[in-house]
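The authors assume throughout that readers already know how a fold can be written as discrete tokens. A single example would do more here than another paragraph of explanation. An entry of this sort, consisting of the sequence and the corresponding backbone structure tokens, reads as follows:
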Amino acid sequence: MLNVLDLFSEAEAVWSTADIIEALETSRSTGYRYIKTLHDAGLLTTVRNGYYSLGPRIIEMDLQIRQTDPLLLASHGVLEDLVDKIGHSALLCTAFRDSVLCIGECRAPLSPANRFSRGQRRPFFQGAVSKVILAHLPHHRLKAIYARHSTEIEDAGLGGTWSVFRKTLGEIKKDGYLLTMGEFNPGVYGLAAPIFNEQKTALGSVGVAWDEKARRDVEVQQAVLAVKQAASTISERLLLENQQRS
């Protein structure tokens, strides 16, 4: 039933009953039951007779997440300080399935409107905010990810074998940050550092980006130190919060 929600996107924001049933490849009775259940829960809303969009309950849940999510709460003020220090927009990201989701952002003045932002996903194998999380995942999870995505991993230049993939991630892990160039937009640098839980597994990452042509005044090592400090501050806050709860 929850697969119904995955049908909706920015490009296809409204779906008819018939199209939902066809996409799910299910019976009409089952399709109608799914739609009614989701509609009653507020996860779907009626646009017009027989047509639906995502519902108001999702907006309510988003507010609850903004007010209660431990990772977001631990980042309060940190992204803003990062923007003040190095003059670039800052992002807070977390792993979601086999991808990375942006959950928080603080935009710098004159920041391009089309950059990665809250609610958007990116592949696990491209970009600094993604790969720096990937490098700090547990061994067993990396093995499972490699088994599912070996072709994508090779195409991303992370290694054509498991041993090379592991070695590549080991180099990122050793550095404690990652600087990339042009992986999504030509001439755009990406810089990110991991956020850890108590087990030193990456829960997410803090990242910034800047255009080489638009910003030639960037002192890279200063930016690296600032991003690593931001990630460390969030990690420490999460640890303290967990200790207080226990």
Summary: The chain has a mean pLDDT of 92. The chain has two domains: 3-59, 69-245. The longest helix spans residues 220-245. Residues 69-245 form a domain with the Beta-Lactamase fold (CATH 3.30.450.40).
